[in-house]
Specification:
Number of strands: 17
Helix content: under 10%
Structural class: mainly beta
Shape: globular
Order of helices and strands: EEEEEEEEEEEHEHEEEEHE
Radius of gyration: 18 Å
Oligomer: single chain
Strand content: 25-35%
Distance between the termini: 62 Å
Bound molecules: 2-[(2-phenylethyl)sulfamoyl]-4-sulfamoylbenzoic acid, zinc ion
Length: about 260
């Protein structure tokens, strides 16, 4: 009998998710070619208002560590920018590499950053639950912030100090007051495009807002990310590194910029 070719050859090793979504036309991440982005004078400034007391906890979900927020009210929201509605903050997380040469999900002119922060928001004006918003074209808005190697980042350090408590998959630690706007650069400039989640279910529901200016973090802070584990306590340890999805084709999309 002929052997069935392993159909998993197209799966990404990390998430056993398909590398390409059949019929996907707006997948993420992408390379942002600066000179191909189109300045849109009608783009508004992005307005960010987070209430630090909506912060709940940090947990290691087995492919990143995420800080979750109470999204039962409109206390932590973003509005403006390319968005038609206001969107509620649900969580933020990071993607990073084993070394400083790569780690971000998006690239700029094919350059990787060592890490990338994603702040995930959902359209609670139109959709009753996050789970429904995840399935809709205008359901989510994710702010992406690049991390580059440089000065120590005070705001990030409070997060880094909590990471040893969530070293293993499925561990959680209380984290009850944190204002993530300290992780967002002051420069208002951003790129924006229509994309998708970069983790399963990879749904094409994300308006991406990628800040042009990176934040600086130091080597010890990046190394702290790399001390986390994909694996649960008791399993053979696998360091949590390179948790970024490969670049996806731009296809018929234009990246707009809020700046000239
Ligand atoms: N890189 S990304 O911004 O695309 C992203 C990464 C991870 C997650 C996550 O689930 O933690 C998320 S999420 O919080 O949006 N969850 C998406 C998967 C999900 C769908 C429905 C219910 C729960 C989780 C987004
Ligand atoms: Zn992400």
């Amino acid at each position: 009998a002929c052997t069935r070719k392993n159909r998993n050859d197209a799966l990404h090793p990390l998430w056993q998710s398909p590398l390409t979504i059949p019929g996907g036309t707006r997948q993420s991440p992408i390379n942002i070619q600066w000179r191909d982005s189109v300045y849109d004078p009608f783009l508004k400034p992005l307005k960010i208002s987070y209430d630090p007391t909506t912060c709940l906890h940090i947990w290691n979900n087995g492919y990143s560590f995420l800080v979750e927020f109470d999204d039962s009210t409109d206390r932590s929201i973003i509005v403006g920018g390319p968005l038609e509605n206001q969107y509620r903050l649900k969580q933020f997380h990071f993607h990073w590499g084993a070394i400083n040469e790569w780690g971000s999900e998006h690239t700029v002119d094919s350059k990787f950053y060592p890490a990338e922060l994603h702040l995930v928001h959902w359209n609670a004006v139109v959709y009753p639950t996050f789970e429904e918003a995840v399935m809709e074209g205008n359901g989510l808005a994710v702010i992406g912030v690049f991390l580059k190697l440089g000065a120590h980042h005070e705001g990030l350090q409070t997060l880094v100090d909590a990471l040893p408590a969530v070293k293993h998959k499925d561990t959680v630690v209380e984290f009850d007051v944190f204002d993530p706007s300290c992780l967002i650069p002051s420069c208002p400039d951003y790129w924006t495009y229509a994309g998708s989640l970069t983790t399963p279910p990879l749904t094409e529901s994300v308006t991406w807002i990628i800040k042009k200016q990176p934040i600086e973090v130091d080597e010890n802070q990046l190394e702290a990310f790399r001390m986390l584990l994909f694996t649960s306590d008791g399993e053979e340890e696998k360091r949590m590194v390179d948790n970024f999805r490969p670049l996806q084709p731009l296809m018929n999309r234009t990246v707009r910029s809020s700046f000239q």
